[in-house]
């Protein structure tokens, strides 16, 4: 890969307050911070869970959830940063988290009905050509690794400083199965912004652009300044180097 071609920087995993109860940075302020750090785009992946605020009232729940995104999108226009909609969804069956890209606001109307279902049913009905579904930090304490047949890939490099995501184990796993591998800052607090990024040839403008880039495997990962080439397919064969290959 020619590094110089991959010049557009996108955060794939960030949380805002108050939509994510564990997040502590207001959405407009987080957008400003990422803009100042030189990012071109960022995906807001607030927690969408079976136990979130107002979950018993579907309309209030979804409207409250999306309010942070709309505020962030408005701030993005001021700071020339593309703010993209994503989600980190959790079902009642366990503590696993799943990152979803390739969605719009209508996604939540349907996804709400699956919060007490589970990943198998959700994957069957939602995963497809346009939507990318990945398990977030699958090797973190408390997580159960989901069968890869229900997923498009995993979050290998999760940079949350408060958790041990066992990155090396995640990298080996992603390489062994040749799945999509991503990096995310998992930003919740001040000081944890912009720890990694996906680098692409074109600026990612919306969630569908993100899903397309991931599906095509045409990206690099910037992890704290180290550039990593994710698993790539060539004629259906996974190269022996791939995720372990650092590029200049």
Would you spell out the secondary-structure blueprint of this structure?
Blueprint: E1 8-14, H1 27-36, E2 41-44, E3 47-49, H2 58-79, E4 82-85, E5 87-90, E6 98-101, H3 107-111, H4 119-126, E7 132-135, E8 153-158, H5 167-177, E9 180-184, E10 196-200, H6 207-216, E11 220-223, E12 226-228
Helix pairs in contact: 1-2
Q: Look at the helices and sheets and give the structural class.
A: alpha/beta
**What's the total helix number?**
6
- Overall pLDDT: 92
Q: What is the number of beta strands?
A: 12
How would you describe this protein?
The chain has 248 residues and is α/β, with parallel strands linked by helices. 27% of the residues lie in helices and 21% in strands. The chain contains six helices and twelve strands. Helix 1 (27-36) runs parallel beside helix 2.
Quick synopsis:
Helix content is 27%, strand content 21%. The protein is an alpha/beta fold. The strands form two sheets. Strands 4-2-1-10-11-12 form a six-stranded mixed beta sheet, with helices on one face. A six-stranded mixed beta sheet has the order 3-5-6-7-8-9.
């Amino acid at each position: 890969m020619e590094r110089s071609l991959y010049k557009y920087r996108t955060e794939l995993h960030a949380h805002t307050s108050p939509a994510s109860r564990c997040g502590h940075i207001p959405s407009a302020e987080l957008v400003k911070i990422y803009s100042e750090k030189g990012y071109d785009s960022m995906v807001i992946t607030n927690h969408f869970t079976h136990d979130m605020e107002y979950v018993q009232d579907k309309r209030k729940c979804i409207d409250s959830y999306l309010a942070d995104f709309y505020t962030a999108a408005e701030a993005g226009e001021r700071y020339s940063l593309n703010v993209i909609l994503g989600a980190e969804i959790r079902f009642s069956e366990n503590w696993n988290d799943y990152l979803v890209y390739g969605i719009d606001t209508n996604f939540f109307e349907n996804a709400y009905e699956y919060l007490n279902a589970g990943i198998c049913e959700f994957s069957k009905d939602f995963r497809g050509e346009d939507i990318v579904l990945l398990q977030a930090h699958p090797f973190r304490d408390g997580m159960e690794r989901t069968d890869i047949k229900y997923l498009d890939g995993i979050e290998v490099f999760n940079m949350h400083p408060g958790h041990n995501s066992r990155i090396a184990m995640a990298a080996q796993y992603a390489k062994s199965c040749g799945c999509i591998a991503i990096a995310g800052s998992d930003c919740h607090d001040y000081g944890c912004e912009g720890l990694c990024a996906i680098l692409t040839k074109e600026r990612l403008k919306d969630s569908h652009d993100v899903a397309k880039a991931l599906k095509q495997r045409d990206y690099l990962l910037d992890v704290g300044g180290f550039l990593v080439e994710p698993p790539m397919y060539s004629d259906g064969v996974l190269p022996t180097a791939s995720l372990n290959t650092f590029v200049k």
